[in-house]
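A further point concerns the way the authors explain their paired sequence and structure data. The central task, working out the structure tokens from the amino acid sequence alone, is never made concrete. I therefore recommend that a typical entry be quoted early in the introduction. An entry of this sort, consisting of the sequence and the corresponding backbone structure tokens, reads as follows:
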Amino acid sequence: MPKRTAPAATPPAAAGRGPRRAVLFFAFAFAVIADPVSSVAYAIEAALHALHGDLALLLPTMALVVGLVVVVTANYWQLVRRFPKGGGAAAAAGRAFGARWTFLPIGALVVDFVLTIGISIAAAASAVVALFPDLAPARIPLALVLLVMVAGLTWFGHRGRLLFAAMTVVFVLAATAVVVLGFTAPHSTGTAPAHTDPGRSAVLAVVLAFPVAMALATGVEAPSTAIAQLGQLDDTHRRRFGRGTLALLLVIVGGLTLALTALAVKLHIGLPGADSTHIADIAHAAAGPGWLYGAFQLTSSLLLLAAASSSFQAGPGLLKALAGSDDRPGVLPTVLGRSNKHHTPYWSVVVFLGAAAVIIVAAGGQEQELVLFYAVSVFVSFLVGLVAMTRFARTERKPVLAAVNGIAAAAVAFTLLVNLLRGWPILSLVATLAVGGGLYFRWTRAGRPSGIEDVEARAEAD
């Protein structure tokens, strides 16, 4: 998921002009979108698995996915306007339905952060294995080493914004080069047939497959909460940064997804072997085994590690905010808020490290085993946010906006339902409800301290 590092405090006058504001926007936007951009590395393959390798249906499926990402992004565009100080779906739910409803999107985000770490680390390990196949037998140890390394770097706090931004930009450049070369002068083509028998009608196959690839939407919520970091800007400029980031996210993620999908269809790149990935096979066919393929694999791996690192900052930061402070009662034990000199809540980092290690081992280090679980928790947050925005629109007598938000909520609910009907992904929903319910119970026992609706904004601004 998105995730976020805090810029150094800057006086408003210094932050608000020319080049400095441009650099701040670059660092903010490209760091925040690292998570959704990195999801391109596994979302297309997830759809192809759900289609049983039918390349002819892959582009319609991913077009539907991108369309739903547009719908979700439009909702967060509204959230940024309404909550320029941050807060996202949690703030919307609390304001629309009461403080107790805040815990449902909070629980969803906690689970989403764990899954983001796990799937990003596993996908990074897969990218390394695709480049160096001899490492395949050590996939799980490799993933665990990468996990510990990223968690260890978190000790030094929020100093990676420009690095994360640079990783995102370099990956986008490498992917663009692969796409251009693949369409103009590909090194080779695959042998996968254009059609396979999905065992059902084409329309039904697409409808059942696209929810699996909705992992592409994870991280869309990040700008609406990460704008809380921009304390050096006023509300107007926070809105501009948030909305500008959402627009950039949509262009880059949607463009790369559709371009790589179309390239896979053109070059007949089907389901990958056990020691490769679909996106690696696309890059290899387009560029051959040379330096561009190596650069593509390396940058995709680093981007995935950046996405994991940002969740290692956002997740523990949320637990720290829930633990309270000397002047604010908390919901969680104070030990989870203990920080080092770099403001890193190290025991909260350990919690996420342990949880991510468990799911990586359980999935055998295979990111595709985790994709089914990935879109469930964050779609709970999307659904709550959309329903809240529908409530606001109806209260303010804006029937057209209420209808649009209602239709979007129905689409998100359908996506969530289809994923849950696959069976095992229901564990993500159970975990979301368990975390949210546990936090609500502790909040009640603590005397229902006020301000819980703003906990995401406080976590980002801390």
Q: What stands out?
A: The CA atoms of residues 132 and 275 lie 9 Å apart.
